[in-house]
Amino acid sequence: MKLKIMIAAAASALAAQAASAQVFVIGNGLGGECYQKTKSKFYNSREAEKVCTRALTEQAMTRTNRAATHVNRGVIRMRDGDYDEALEDYSEAIRLDNDLGAAYLNQGAAFIYVSDFASAIESLDRAIELESNDLFAAYYNRAIARESTDDVAGAYYDFQKSLELKPDWELAAQQLDRFRIEEAG
What we know:
This protein has helices at about 30-40, 45-60, 65-80, 85-95, 100-115, 115-130, 135-150, 150-165, 170-175; strands spanning about 5, 180-185. The chain is mainly alpha-helical.
């Protein structure tokens, strides 16, 4: 039996926000403070970005922590709507640590915000391949990108996988409610 997946609402009605993740930086210096500010929901974005920038310019860090700090600053910039600067941070993080799944996850989210869905899918495929810590978010974001490229079946299966990985995530459940499955024929 062949199934046909249909979307109940138009793709333009997709009002979901892309998910992002921060990366832990070991230590109590500016890099650690950057992480704490990124993790906090109550921070001044300009102050947080300054702390992250100072960490990158003033603090001696391992290559891994430097990459993580770029991801964290990118998250702050992305939350502020500075997608191009966020993408620069994610690219630098990937250059420093090609296996940092959170960099690809956030890069994919930023590409979604700038409507570059093909690049988003490429980044999110890599985040999934690396089994990023927030794998549920990688599948969710890829679903958004797939739906935006008219891959409705792929979007449906990615929303399902996202909900499977994080069963209590209401946002993924709401997305799945927009779909209906019919027998093809």
